[in-house]
Amino acid sequence: MGGTAAAAAATGSAADPAFTLLDGLSELQATELALTRLASEGIEIQAVEPAVPITGADARVVGVRMTPEYANGTIALTGQPGSGSGRLLGGAVLTSPTARMEITGIRGSLPDNRIFAFLKVNDQWVGELPMYTGDPAAVRLSVLPGTPGKPTVIKGSGIPLTPTQEGLDAFAGAFGTALFALTDVVFTSSGEGNAWPLPSSPIG
């Protein structure tokens, strides 16, 4: 769920149930479009610990699997997330024979649908930038309440992420080429985690 919290955005209601994440796993997987264009320039994906790589059928790395540092938020009965925030541990690095672009500390907040990360190009820290955006309409989470005394299981998958202008500029600056546009889906996000429901706030 950490990734879905970081990747989702929507407008929540005060009546929507709220949750705080206990544990979970999140995946960021590059799309075929992204993998093909990266391969054309000799650019590969690697994981930044404690993230671990996700490998495809041909043994190349196609994404990373991360654990959340924290995640909390509200979820409507429709499965659409409302207000909330989350951050993931570790990250990913794009590397070629001549350049290296690392993103770590990936975080998002709702209802802002931008995904921020700390950017490092070669050996220089650039700072925290909005790197990707999510599509609020594409986000649906499944909520499976636990038995009494047990946590709720929250799942989400297939959330499309497109680059921001800042992300495009950072990529072009690092690798000297522009491979993507603002409308290109470069990653999909998915996640699953155990969460505790939070008490409802009284409405005055």
How would you explain this protein's 3D organization?
The model is unreliable at 8-13 (pLDDT under 50). An eight-stranded antiparallel beta barrel has the order 1-5-6-8-9-10-12-13. It has helices spanning 2-7, 32-40, 165-175; strands at residues 18-30, 44-48, 52-55, 61-66, 68-75, 81-88, 91-95, 100-110, 114-121, 124-134, 141-144, 152-163, 187-198. The radius of gyration is 17 Å and the shape is elongated. Helix content is 13%, strand content 52%. It has 204 residues and is mainly beta. The protein is built from three helices and 13 strands, in the order H-E-H-E-E-E-E-E-E-E-E-E-E-E-H-E. The longest helix is centred in the C-terminal third of the chain and has 11 residues, at 165-175. The chain has one domain.
Please describe the topology of this protein.
Blueprint: H1 2-7, E1 18-30, H2 32-40, E2 44-48, E3 52-55, E4 61-66, E5 68-75, E6 81-88, E7 91-95, E8 100-110, E9 114-121, E10 124-134, E11 141-144, E12 152-163, H3 165-175, E13 187-198
Antiparallel strand pairs: 1-4, 1-5, 1-13, 2-7, 3-4, 5-6, 6-8, 7-8, 8-9, 9-10, 10-12, 11-12, 12-13
Concise summary:
By secondary structure, the chain is mainly beta.
What would the keywords be for this entry?
204 residues, mainly beta, 8-stranded antiparallel barrel, elongated
What are the segments in which pLDDT stays under 50 over at least 5 consecutive residues?
A: 8-13
Strand order of the largest sheet: 1-5-6-8-9-10-12-13
Strand composition percent: over 45%
Count the beta strands: 13
What percent of residues adopt helix (DSSP H or I)?
10-25%
Question: Any idea how many domains?
Answer: 1
Biggest β-sheet description: 8 strands, antiparallel, barrel
**Can you give the mean pLDDT?**
89
Question: H/E series, N to C?
Answer: HEHEEEEEEEEEEEHE
Structural class: mainly beta
Shape: elongated
